[in-house]
Amino acid sequence: MLDEVDQRISGIEVHADDLITYTDVTGYYEFPNQDIANHEIYVVYDATIYPSHTTDTSYTIMASDIYNRDFGLNTNESIFDAEFVASTNLYICGLHGELNISIENTGNTPIDATFTAIFSDVLNIFAVLPTPTSFDGNAYTWHFDNIPLGQIQYLSIHTLFPGYELMGQSITNEYTLTLFDEFGNIINNTNTTNSSLLLCSFDPNDKTVTPSGASDAHYVPLDTPLSI
Fold this sequence. Notes:
Layout lengths: L12 E4 L2 E4 L16 E6 L13 E4 L20 E7 L2 E2 L3 E10 L5 E8 L5 E6 L4 E3 L2 E9 L4 E9 L9 E11 L5 E14 L29
Parallel strand pairs: 6-14
Antiparallel strand pairs: 1-2, 1-3, 3-4, 5-7, 7-12, 8-11, 8-13, 9-12, 10-11, 13-14
Protein backbone atom coordinates (compact mmCIF):
# COMPACT_ATOMS: atom_id res chain seq x y z
CA MET A 1 0.00 0.00 0.00
CA LEU A 2 1.52 3.30 -1.13
CA ASP A 3 0.52 6.90 -0.48
CA GLU A 4 0.43 9.73 -3.00
CA VAL A 5 4.21 10.15 -2.90
CA ASP A 6 4.86 6.40 -3.02
CA GLN A 7 5.66 6.06 0.68
CA ARG A 8 4.69 2.70 2.14
CA ILE A 9 1.75 2.76 4.58
CA SER A 10 1.41 0.35 7.49
CA GLY A 11 -1.69 -0.53 9.48
CA ILE A 12 -4.22 -0.37 6.60
CA GLU A 13 -7.08 -2.83 7.13
CA VAL A 14 -7.42 -5.26 4.20
CA HIS A 15 -10.26 -7.78 3.74
CA ALA A 16 -10.39 -10.97 1.69
CA ASP A 17 -13.99 -12.15 1.87
CA ASP A 18 -14.50 -12.53 5.65
CA LEU A 19 -10.76 -12.57 6.49
CA ILE A 20 -8.99 -9.46 7.80
CA THR A 21 -5.32 -8.48 7.92
CA TYR A 22 -3.27 -5.29 8.06
CA THR A 23 -0.41 -3.95 5.98
CA ASP A 24 2.99 -4.31 7.65
CA VAL A 25 5.70 -1.64 8.01
CA THR A 26 6.68 -2.18 4.37
CA GLY A 27 3.10 -1.62 3.16
CA TYR A 28 2.59 -5.29 2.25
CA TYR A 29 -0.22 -7.64 3.20
CA GLU A 30 -0.99 -11.27 2.44
CA PHE A 31 -3.66 -13.95 2.84
CA PRO A 32 -1.72 -17.23 2.73
CA ASN A 33 -3.08 -20.73 1.98
CA GLN A 34 -6.30 -19.69 0.27
CA ASP A 35 -8.28 -22.02 -1.93
CA ILE A 36 -8.39 -21.48 -5.69
CA ALA A 37 -11.65 -19.57 -6.04
CA ASN A 38 -13.09 -16.10 -6.54
CA HIS A 39 -12.06 -13.85 -3.65
CA GLU A 40 -13.14 -10.24 -3.18
CA ILE A 41 -10.33 -8.07 -1.80
CA TYR A 42 -11.10 -4.64 -0.41
CA VAL A 43 -9.71 -2.10 2.06
CA VAL A 44 -11.18 -0.18 4.97
CA TYR A 45 -9.30 3.03 5.56
CA ASP A 46 -9.21 6.17 7.64
CA ALA A 47 -10.68 9.10 5.74
CA THR A 48 -7.55 11.15 6.43
CA ILE A 49 -5.35 8.81 4.37
CA TYR A 50 -5.36 9.35 0.61
CA PRO A 51 -2.86 7.21 -1.33
CA SER A 52 -2.47 7.29 -5.12
CA HIS A 53 -5.71 7.33 -7.08
CA THR A 54 -4.56 4.92 -9.78
CA THR A 55 -6.46 1.74 -8.97
CA ASP A 56 -9.77 0.63 -7.54
CA THR A 57 -10.49 0.14 -3.87
CA SER A 58 -11.64 -3.44 -4.47
CA TYR A 59 -11.27 -6.17 -7.08
CA THR A 60 -11.80 -9.91 -7.50
CA ILE A 61 -8.96 -12.40 -7.81
CA MET A 62 -9.34 -15.88 -9.23
CA ALA A 63 -6.25 -17.75 -8.04
CA SER A 64 -4.64 -18.73 -4.76
CA ASP A 65 -1.23 -17.12 -5.34
CA ILE A 66 -1.45 -13.46 -6.30
CA TYR A 67 1.46 -11.10 -5.54
CA ASN A 68 2.23 -7.40 -5.89
CA ARG A 69 -1.34 -6.32 -6.56
CA ASP A 70 -1.66 -2.71 -5.41
CA PHE A 71 -4.79 -0.69 -5.01
CA GLY A 72 -5.34 2.92 -4.16
CA LEU A 73 -7.82 4.58 -1.87
CA ASN A 74 -9.96 6.72 -4.11
CA THR A 75 -11.98 9.77 -3.18
CA ASN A 76 -13.72 12.38 -5.30
CA GLU A 77 -13.54 14.90 -2.46
CA SER A 78 -10.86 17.58 -2.51
CA ILE A 79 -8.85 17.36 0.70
CA PHE A 80 -6.97 20.54 1.66
CA ASP A 81 -4.45 19.64 4.34
CA ALA A 82 -0.88 20.47 5.31
CA GLU A 83 1.43 20.16 8.28
CA PHE A 84 4.61 21.88 9.37
CA VAL A 85 7.59 20.91 11.49
CA ALA A 86 9.84 23.45 13.23
CA SER A 87 13.22 22.27 14.51
CA THR A 88 16.49 23.74 15.71
CA ASN A 89 19.76 22.77 17.25
CA LEU A 90 20.35 23.64 20.89
CA TYR A 91 20.01 27.31 21.84
CA ILE A 92 23.60 28.04 22.96
CA CYS A 93 24.62 31.40 24.46
CA GLY A 94 26.29 33.74 21.98
CA LEU A 95 26.43 31.25 19.08
CA HIS A 96 24.94 31.34 15.61
CA GLY A 97 22.05 28.95 15.14
CA GLU A 98 19.71 27.81 12.38
CA LEU A 99 15.95 27.33 12.75
CA ASN A 100 14.53 24.96 10.14
CA ILE A 101 10.86 24.76 9.17
CA SER A 102 9.21 22.41 6.67
CA ILE A 103 5.67 22.76 5.32
CA GLU A 104 4.19 19.74 3.51
CA ASN A 105 0.98 19.43 1.49
CA THR A 106 -0.51 16.26 3.00
CA GLY A 107 -3.86 16.54 1.24
CA ASN A 108 -4.90 15.28 -2.19
CA THR A 109 -5.12 18.59 -4.04
CA PRO A 110 -2.84 21.63 -4.55
CA ILE A 111 -3.20 24.32 -1.88
CA ASP A 112 -2.37 27.95 -1.20
CA ALA A 113 -0.83 28.57 2.21
CA THR A 114 0.45 31.39 4.37
CA PHE A 115 2.99 30.68 7.11
CA THR A 116 3.77 33.25 9.81
CA ALA A 117 6.61 32.91 12.32
CA ILE A 118 6.89 35.31 15.25
CA PHE A 119 10.32 34.82 16.78
CA SER A 120 11.32 35.85 20.29
CA ASP A 121 12.58 39.41 20.57
CA VAL A 122 15.81 38.12 22.15
CA LEU A 123 16.81 36.40 18.90
CA ASN A 124 19.00 38.46 16.57
CA ILE A 125 17.90 37.20 13.14
CA PHE A 126 20.33 38.09 10.35
CA ALA A 127 19.33 35.84 7.40
CA VAL A 128 16.06 34.28 6.22
CA LEU A 129 15.58 31.89 3.28
CA PRO A 130 13.56 32.04 1.12
CA THR A 131 12.83 35.76 1.17
CA PRO A 132 9.62 36.30 3.15
CA THR A 133 6.56 37.88 1.55
CA SER A 134 6.57 40.42 4.38
CA PHE A 135 8.14 41.02 7.79
CA ASP A 136 7.79 43.34 10.75
CA GLY A 137 10.50 43.14 13.38
CA ASN A 138 10.89 39.47 14.26
CA ALA A 139 7.56 38.52 12.62
CA TYR A 140 7.98 36.94 9.17
CA THR A 141 5.29 35.81 6.71
CA TRP A 142 5.61 33.63 3.62
CA HIS A 143 2.82 33.01 1.11
CA PHE A 144 2.91 29.97 -1.17
CA ASP A 145 0.63 29.54 -4.19
CA ASN A 146 -0.51 26.20 -5.54
CA ILE A 147 1.70 23.83 -3.51
CA PRO A 148 1.43 20.43 -5.25
CA LEU A 149 0.29 17.45 -3.20
CA GLY A 150 3.21 15.82 -1.43
CA GLN A 151 5.54 18.79 -1.98
CA ILE A 152 7.51 20.26 0.93
CA GLN A 153 8.49 23.91 1.31
CA TYR A 154 11.62 24.51 3.38
CA LEU A 155 12.40 27.63 5.42
CA SER A 156 15.75 28.45 7.03
CA ILE A 157 16.22 31.21 9.63
CA HIS A 158 19.70 32.12 10.82
CA THR A 159 20.02 33.82 14.18
CA LEU A 160 22.48 34.87 16.86
CA PHE A 161 21.47 33.56 20.27
CA PRO A 162 21.62 35.85 23.34
CA GLY A 163 24.56 35.96 25.74
CA TYR A 164 24.97 34.43 29.18
CA GLU A 165 22.89 37.18 30.80
CA LEU A 166 19.77 35.24 29.72
CA MET A 167 21.15 31.80 30.60
CA GLY A 168 18.34 29.39 31.48
CA GLN A 169 15.61 31.58 30.02
CA SER A 170 12.90 29.90 27.93
CA ILE A 171 12.85 31.31 24.40
CA THR A 172 9.45 30.96 22.72
CA ASN A 173 8.56 31.27 19.03
CA GLU A 174 5.03 31.25 17.63
CA TYR A 175 4.01 29.68 14.31
CA THR A 176 0.75 29.93 12.32
CA LEU A 177 -0.13 28.00 9.15
CA THR A 178 -3.23 29.15 7.23
CA LEU A 179 -4.63 27.16 4.28
CA PHE A 180 -6.84 28.50 1.49
CA ASP A 181 -9.03 26.79 -1.09
CA GLU A 182 -8.98 27.66 -4.80
CA PHE A 183 -11.36 30.58 -4.14
CA GLY A 184 -9.18 32.16 -1.46
CA ASN A 185 -11.38 31.04 1.43
CA ILE A 186 -9.63 30.13 4.70
CA ILE A 187 -10.20 26.42 5.30
CA ASN A 188 -7.78 25.70 8.12
CA ASN A 189 -5.70 27.67 10.59
CA THR A 190 -3.09 26.00 12.83
CA ASN A 191 -1.26 27.88 15.57
CA THR A 192 1.42 26.55 17.91
CA THR A 193 4.35 27.70 20.03
CA ASN A 194 7.80 26.20 20.44
CA SER A 195 10.02 26.85 23.46
CA SER A 196 13.66 26.00 24.19
CA LEU A 197 16.00 26.86 27.06
CA LEU A 198 19.04 29.03 26.43
CA LEU A 199 22.06 26.97 27.49
CA CYS A 200 25.52 28.29 28.35
CA SER A 201 28.83 26.61 29.01
CA PHE A 202 30.45 27.07 32.43
CA ASP A 203 33.61 26.19 34.34
CA PRO A 204 32.75 23.45 36.88
CA ASN A 205 35.70 24.64 39.00
CA ASP A 206 34.32 28.16 39.25
CA LYS A 207 32.73 28.19 42.73
CA THR A 208 31.23 30.88 44.91
CA VAL A 209 31.76 30.34 48.65
CA THR A 210 30.27 32.18 51.62
CA PRO A 211 31.52 33.61 53.85
CA SER A 212 34.16 34.98 51.49
CA GLY A 213 36.78 35.38 54.26
CA ALA A 214 39.32 38.13 54.92
CA SER A 215 42.10 39.53 52.73
CA ASP A 216 43.04 38.35 49.26
CA ALA A 217 43.65 34.88 50.68
CA HIS A 218 40.05 34.72 52.02
CA TYR A 219 40.97 33.49 55.49
CA VAL A 220 38.16 32.22 57.72
CA PRO A 221 38.31 30.84 61.28
CA LEU A 222 38.62 27.10 61.73
CA ASP A 223 35.36 25.16 61.95
CA THR A 224 33.50 27.92 60.06
CA PRO A 225 30.66 26.37 58.00
CA LEU A 226 31.12 27.12 54.30
CA SER A 227 28.30 27.37 51.79
CA ILE A 228 29.32 26.56 48.20
